[in-house]
Amino acid sequence: MTPNVQSFFDDDTNTISYVVSDPATGACAIIDPVLNYDAAAARTATISADRVIDHVRREGLNCEWVLETHVHADHLSAAPYVQGKLGGKLAIGDHITITQSVFGEIFNAGPDLPRDGSQFDQLFHDGDSFPLGKMTARALHTPGHTPACMTYVIGDAAFVGDTMFMPDYGTARADFPGGDARILYRSIRKIFTLPGEARLFMCHDYLPEGRSEHRWETTVAEQKAANIHIHDGVSEDEFVTMREARDAQLGMPKLILPSIQVNIRAGYMPPAEDNGTVYLKLPVNIMGEPQTAPDGTRPGTQ
Question: Is the dihedral of CA 140, 20, 89, 49 positive or negative?
Fold first, then answer.
């Protein structure tokens, strides 16, 4: 039950996409593919996604799933593009409906945005299993960063989305609409019930001070022993106090506004207007003022 895992790092967004395959059959799942987006020009490109697609074709793999761990706030999803090239079912957690409802209101989306998750082929409930070739994968609901966050357990590998980062960087923020630090703590402790040797794959790596190379693979045992925010011995109340104080100092991710309104649509753009052009909205003064750290600098976004 050891899948092959190939990672793809997107420099612009610090996002890692994955191709996870069953060695026995060549069936694969693609997790969190990235659509390149130039915010200044509002132009998209498929450079990152094409790297993933080329790998799948070169290795002769058969794409059965395109999986989203959650509605990302830091990059636009390339899931529809990847699915159009390689096939497979597009899936996310069933709590996507909550995220769609919340952000549908924020963006004043009309009836062109169904809030029932119907943009996806499959909505996973907590504990659902699904096949990947001859392997059986599981979908675990691990909210807190967002209501719809899922961890996908495939053999000895778990893809944890934004619940946590490498041990020297900590955990994800929990202050987006629908986020909750207390729930995030419980979700991470749920992941920690996996075997100690289970491989954990992060969705992002932001280089912490003192580290010069990006990393995105660790284990349950390493996280429990060394995660700077939530190692064994950190109580729920201690974590919530730390997380809420840190979140209060964070600015918004630079691509949150374009990302969310695309990703709640499963990576599809809003419908074109009567002139044939697609427009993304920028709701003003909705997401809060950027915060400043005590030393006057702008802290990171996680």
Answer: positive
Per the rule left: phi > 0, alpha: psi between -120 and 50, beta: everything else, 175 is: alpha
45-59 in b/e form (b: 16+ CB < 10 A) is ebebbbbbbebbeee
Other CB atoms within a 10 A radius of the CB of residue 143 amount to: 23
With beta carbons less than 8 A apart as the criterion, state whether 134 and 108 touch.
Answer: no
User: Could you tell me if 80 and 268 are in contact, meaning their C-beta atoms sit under 8 angstroms apart?
Assistant: yes
User: Tokens 């599809």 — which residue?
Assistant: 268
Is residue 302 predicted with pLDDT exceeding 80? Answer: no
Contact 75, 13 (CB under 8 A): yes
Over residues 62-92, the pLDDT tens digits come to: 999 999 999 999 999 999 999 999 999 999 9
List, for residues 14-32, the tens digit of each pLDDT value: 999 999 999 999 999 999 9
For residue 237, give the amino acid letter.
D
Beta strands in 125-232 (DSSP E): 129-132, 135-141, 150-154, 157-159, 199-201, 217-219
The β-bridge partners of 15 are: 10, 204
In degrees rounded to 5, what are phi and psi of residue 72? -75, 145
Task: Sketch out the chain's domains with CATH numbers.
Answer: 4-263 (3.60.15.10)
